[in-house]
Amino acid sequence: MPIQAVEPRRLYRQIADQLRQLIDAGEFAVGDRLPTERELADQLGISRPTVREALIALEVEGRIRIRVGSGIYVTEPPRAEILTAEMDEGPFELLRAREFIEGAIAAEAALHARPIDIEHMDDVLRRMEDIPRPTRMTIALDREFHTMVAGILGNAVLVRCIGELFDQRMNPYFERLSSYFENRESWRAAAEEHRAVRDPERAKAAMQEHLRQSQLRFSRNFGEKSAAREVAG
Questions:
Q1: SS3 of 67, please?
Q2: What is the C-alpha separation between 47 and 41, in angstroms, rounded?
Q3: Region 47-63: what's the mean pLDDT?
Q4: Using CA of residue 85, residue 164, residue 93, residue 38, what is the dihedral sign?
Q5: Of 150, 167, 182, 227, which has fewest CB within 10 angstroms of its CB?
Q6: 148, 108 contact by CB (below 8 A)
Q7: If you average pLDDT over residues 158-166, what whole number do you get?
Q8: First CA to last CA distance, the chain
């Protein structure tokens, strides 16, 4: 019998499994409201971002429905099991990694940026700012900007690394999370944060601040009315 490696499951997936088991066991019936995100975090002794990642995973599965300003409700299980690609890393873990890695890259890129590099960055930023709200086009431009910063160092491995890290947001969990918190205001703030990165003296701090603010935007309470659904499907 071949031996298979045992991989530790990420904490948010363990929490999702626990909540799913409680629902299946009848602790929460269809239509019941689950404890709030804050209450779950307190009861489980974990951070709210971890709880949020678990709830998003369950919503993608069709097991719960998050109603902004109302609560988290158990839904009728889907007739057929919904298969979704599992992420080893949750959205917040990914953003924290990008904050560290891209901050270091931005600091080094600032030392080597040529006038033509700044010109290309400005062109992408202008195109980003011409679009007033998040769309698939803004996501593509966002990716172009981040890989462009890495490209200043002339290292194809770094460009591929940053591109692959960015592309991990193109999954059902991250898209669902974005649908609650990305809107015109958040995109305007993100565009301003991008422009700060082109300043050689502030590049590292600006990149880290941009990705830190992204985490904060995704950490707002689900009850906030500003969570407009304006992200393209």
A1: strand
A2: 6
A3: 90
A4: negative
A5: 167
A6: no
A7: 96
A8: 45
